[in-house]
Design goal:
Elements lengths: L4 E5 L11 H13 L4 E10 L4 E3 L15 H4 L9 H13 L5 E3 L6 H10 L7 E6 L5 H11 L7 E7 L5 H5 L9 H15 L3 H5 L1 H4 L3 H4 L7 H9 L7 E4 L2 E2 L3 E2 L2 E4 L1
Parallel strand pairs: 1-6, 2-5, 2-6, 3-4
Antiparallel strand pairs: 1-10, 7-10, 8-9
Amino acid sequence: MRFPSVFVSHGAPTLAIEDVPASRFLRGFGQELGRPSAILVVSAHWDTAAPMVTTAPRLETIHDFGGFDPALYAIRYAPPGAVEVAERARATLKAAGFVVVADPARGIDHGGWVPLLLMYPAADIPVLQLSVQSRLEAGHHFRLGQALRPLREAGVLILASGSATHNLREAFRAVPGTPTPEWVTEFGEWVAKALAEQRIDDLLDYERLGPHARRNHPTVEHFVPLLVALGAGTPGVAPRRAHASTTLAVLAMDAYVFD
């Protein structure tokens, strides 16, 4: 069974314990997608100089954040690893010209376990993570996705986890009840329209062409997972915008399905 590649916004770690539109969406999203043979997570929270994949037999929970509700630190999400899929991913990426390093010790960061806890709470599906490279260009991440596309035919769900917008400084000083500002909405709608119209070159040049791009993404690591999901999608097929909402006023929680 072929699985899509998807992009989800994981927002703040508190999404795991909140009852908000984005968490409710993710709780039903796993059922909608069905059960994959394995899940390859491209997480904004694993940023390395060159692509790396996890090869641990079990991915231990990484609490890579501080100052949050103690309940978050009690959460354990430790799925089995996907060693064989990791080796296939390495071979596929190597054939496309990438040098990929295996990491046998790394677990799963909150960019992975927060959405997966909501989507597949039993933690019984094999998981591997792939890092992003924020120092490299957008096109690098699109090509990563293209190289990973064949994994979908083996029932692997490619789950790219970042954030449609990600200005944490603005988010943490937002007053509760503050409406979503236009600079967030305009960027989110620009991305949605560019995806629907398959304007890939514009998306790869989002920092220059996207309205308020730098304000929405002061750093790139939360946007480039979207480009991996885009590259892994079927060429010429527009994605489906599966969800749109905001948390903390300025964090857009959009999700896309690339069939």
